[in-house]
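Consider the following input, taken from an annotated entry for Dirigent protein (Musa acuminata subsp. malaccensis).
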Amino acid sequence: MAELRGFSFTTGFFFLFAVVFAFASAAEEPHGFLQSEKLVKKPVREKLSHLRFYWHDVVSGPDPTAVTVARAAASSTNASASGFGTVVMIDDPMTVGPELSSRLVGRAQGFYALAAKEETALLMAMNLAFVEGKYNGSTIAVLGRNAVFSDVREMPVVGGSGLFRLARGYAQARTHSFDPKTGDAVVEYNVFVMHY
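Applying the prediction step yields:
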């Protein structure tokens, strides 16, 4: 065997193997910070689910589902027609049809913030919490930009829980109706989500 400065190839290989094994053993301590999960031997296939519902953003009346919790102070340095800086908390019903009285399938809980100075564009951060059928108790997390006057807005699905654990995908929003007098809106959502 070839010798390099007093070390043989075999000695070097065993030394490298010992170092790698020591790091791997230290990283997988039973009570340590990092623990690797063993892979399931039987492969689990991902499913694509398409969920369609109507999101009701009610800002008017005696029982609103969207409430402004912060608004930027009007000043000469912060004059924006878009409402820039406004933050609204939501607990919006999600229904099968566009009527608020149609069957409830869940609630969109989270907030949206007016995040653009030159146009009406929202930062949406919401959990779609389902209360109907096999998805009862499961959630889908949506986080993204919503340019409300665009015909179709697309926002990423960034996760989920329950049957939507490890979810990924996207949500498309289309305004079904908007009342300029009250500010109430009904938005059709089509959510395409990959999950196990």
